[in-house]
Design goal:
The structure is a single chain. This protein has 201 residues and is an alpha+beta fold. The protein has seven helices and eight strands. The strands form three sheets. Strands 2-3-5-6 form a four-stranded antiparallel β-sheet, with no helix packed on it. Strands 1-8 form a two-stranded antiparallel ribbon. A two-stranded antiparallel sheet has the order 4-7. The two termini are 28 Å apart.
Length: 201
């Protein structure tokens, strides 16, 4: 089984990836360069019930994400567009009355939007503030790997686990590249040993 590629990047991840302030990302979203979404368990927009992912407007996030003045730790948004639902119209939040509360770490950019943006503006290989962008998305592998183990159980050997990880990288990479097997085994060894220990107990 090949693990699926990453579907969303947090706004914070994108900012670090491109070396760009979050307020700038909000501005880019406002003019339609990509979408910013968040997740909500349930809100009301008039007589319509909305849940799951919703698209937000960059201008509604400026005060929270701006690098000038006093930054807010969260903000309330009144406007949303349902994401992956049978509705593409702008809706106004009526419940909670104050609006939908969001925080910076609860904002995501769909991966398809992020990759398209990087391709258009040549940002795929750009160095982030923390240094050169890693060649392989090691952070992105852990969540789908855990989900796979939860659904399918612990594999029979570390080599089987390494094969799954390598297959995920090949699927996720636009060029089909993956780390060498010795690097994969070194990275997953602590996880494998923890899994085997738990099984033995």
């Amino acid at each position: 089984m090949t693990l699926p590629s990453k579907e969303y990047f947090t706004l914070i991840e994108a900012g670090a990836r491109w070396g760009t302030p979050l307020g700038t990302l909000a501005g880019w979203a406002e003019v339609g360069r990509f979408r910013i979404v968040t997740s909500t368990p349930h809100i009301a927009c008039g007589d319509r019930r909305v849940f799951g992912m919703v698209e937000l407007f960059g201008s509604d996030l400026f005060k929270m994400l701006s690098t000038t003045g006093k930054r807010s730790r969260c903000c309330l948004v009144q406007r949303v567009i349902p994401f992956h639902q049978d509705c593409t119209e702008l809706l106004y939040v009526t419940k909670p009355k104050q609006g939908l509360r969001v925080q910076p770490d609860e904002l995501w950019i769909p991966a398809i939007d992020l990759y398209r943006f990087e391709e258009k503006y040549g940002l795929a290989q750009r160095a982030s503030k923390g240094g050169r962008e890693p060649k392989y998305d090691w952070e992105g592998i852990w969540a789908p790997l855990c989900a796979h183990i939860f659904a399918e159980g612990v594999l029979k050997s570390m080599q089987d686990l390494a094969n799954e990880v390598q297959a995920w990288f090949i699927e996720a990479s636009p060029t089909g590249e993956a780390p060498d097997m010795s690097t994969i085994r070194r990275r997953i060894r602590p996880i494998w040993e923890a899994l085997k220990k738990e099984q033995e107990n």
